[in-house]
Amino acid sequence: MAFTRPTGKHRRPSRAVRTGANIAGIATLTAGGVVAGFAAPAMAAADEAHRTEDTGLTQAIVMSDAISGNVDAQAETQRSAADEASVRQQAEKDAKQRAAEATKHAAEAQRKADAERAEKERAARDEERKRLNLFVMPIEGSYVSTPYKASSGLWSSGSHTGVDFHAESGTSVHAVGAGTIVEAGWGGAYGNNIVIKMNDGTYTQYGHLSSIGVSVGDTVTAGQQIGLSGATGNVTGPHLHFEARTAPTYGSDIDPVAYLRSHGVSL
């Protein structure tokens, strides 16, 4: 024989439904502001009957508060970390900027130092060039006593191959310019003589010296003393015989006055 389940709601409500009803009821009573004395036994019975549900509600509230607290703590930690990261990033940015400025200043200082050094080196080169290209009189403050190409039987060629500068014996004789000594010693009719190969490829000769102060191979500069004037060799009195030549040998002479003037010497 078949049994038929009676219609209607005879089954126990599910836990979720019961919990929801309790919550709804509490909310309703709270909203209405009514606490009914006659309902107390029923409420107590319901509370006893559904202790698990009420406990679940309490746990839900407590868990909600704990979760909320954890969320707040996490948010605060994240804000703190973000603030620290921002401070660190700003510090790194400032440090990079200072480093870039320091590098820029150092580069500018280096460029300035390089420019100053280059200017000093250029000035030194110019000064050295002037010194090397400078020409002076062989005897300071003297004058030509016998001109170039003067005729006389005193010279084997029949004419003067250089000029004579007035000088007492023992007067300081200077190299007229920078060069290298290629001859220093006795030169026959020239007496004690010195021949210098100048830096420009020409040659100068200094004759009739009383003493010689340089040796072959020495380098000299303009105005450097190389000996003392005298009256050695074929002479009638003390003086300096000065020649300018295109080669170290006799017969390659050129006008010594014009030679000195072409190098800026006034006489």
TrEMBL record:
CDD domains listed in its UniProt record: M23_peptidase
Family matches, as PANTHER family: MUREIN HYDROLASE ACTIVATOR ENVC, PEPTIDASE-RELATED
M23ase beta-sheet core domain residues: 159-255
Keyword terms: Membrane, Transmembrane, Transmembrane helix
A GO term for molecular function: metalloendopeptidase activity
Keyword DNA repair: no
Protein name per its UniProtKB record: Peptidoglycan DD-metalloendopeptidase family protein
Chain segments annotated as transmembrane: 21-44
Annotated segments matching region Disordered: 88-126
